[in-house]
């Protein structure tokens, strides 16, 4: 209307003129009755009745790119997916119709179908709300990790991550903020318990003031350092003394002097005598050379060599360069 009138009036001025002259003026009083008969009744039941739009309050659309929308099958204007939870829920009411000749049983049956459909809609919306609240869609798209790293107040330990996984079933009963608050309170409880145990330890050692605790901790640290150095020195001496006793079980057997250090470790770990190992090694290398020369050979390994021992020895010979990897 303002464009039709011209540049002399703004849209606000045109609206005020129309309302004052044609609605609240004499013309409006003469033409518009105080009570409007046959007013149209709203049958969409916005108060929460069956099939009411208020049953599922729409959420704002997800902030994702067009490619990501196509990947998810997401329709932002409807906040729906191509495949929803309980996809066939609409079949409960799609064939329903209200007929004047329906008896009471049929009416109640149709109402039961509507009630079942409403429950499925509520469950579908509940799952959407959980996914939106816990940012499951960005997590699926791989964008949630960067945001968590930016907003993280403190570094989460491995134990806390495992605890979060154990408490994951609580997601459907608590909002994201409530769950984070619960987790933070559990962390605070753990820290307080540790602090209480520390203070009780101070009290048992006769410390009653925090100023004395620093001196006590310094002395305790020196004490533990001396203990650690003493244990380290003892273990070094023990290693030197027990270096030769590592192969005590096989060092007196025939063929021990023919083995390298790595072969000694292998035979000791497999509980295999040096003579048997040398026999198996000779057979495997001989078969490998014959195959390389194109001579057909049938491997005849000893009966005491099971699959596990054979695999371990083959891997060892391959890593050591005795045979090629494709042959093993």
From TrEMBL:
Pfam families cross-referenced by the UniProt entry: TADA2A-like_3rd, Tri-helical_Ada2b_C
Would you say which domain of life the source belongs to?
Eukaryota
- Stored InterPro entries: Ada2b_C, Homeodomain-like_sf, SANT_dom, TADA2A_B-like_dom, WH-like_DNA-bd_sf
What range(s) does the SANT domain occupy? 1-26
Q: Region annotation Disordered: residue ranges?
A: 213-243
Q: Which Gene3D superfamilies match?
A: Winged helix-like DNA-binding domain superfamily/Winged helix DNA-binding domain
PROSITE patterns (alphabetical): SANT
Q: What PANTHER family does this protein map onto? A: TRANSCRIPTIONAL ADAPTER 2-BETA, TRANSCRIPTIONAL ADAPTOR 2 ADA2 -RELATED
Any idea what this protein is called? Answer: Transcriptional adapter 2-beta
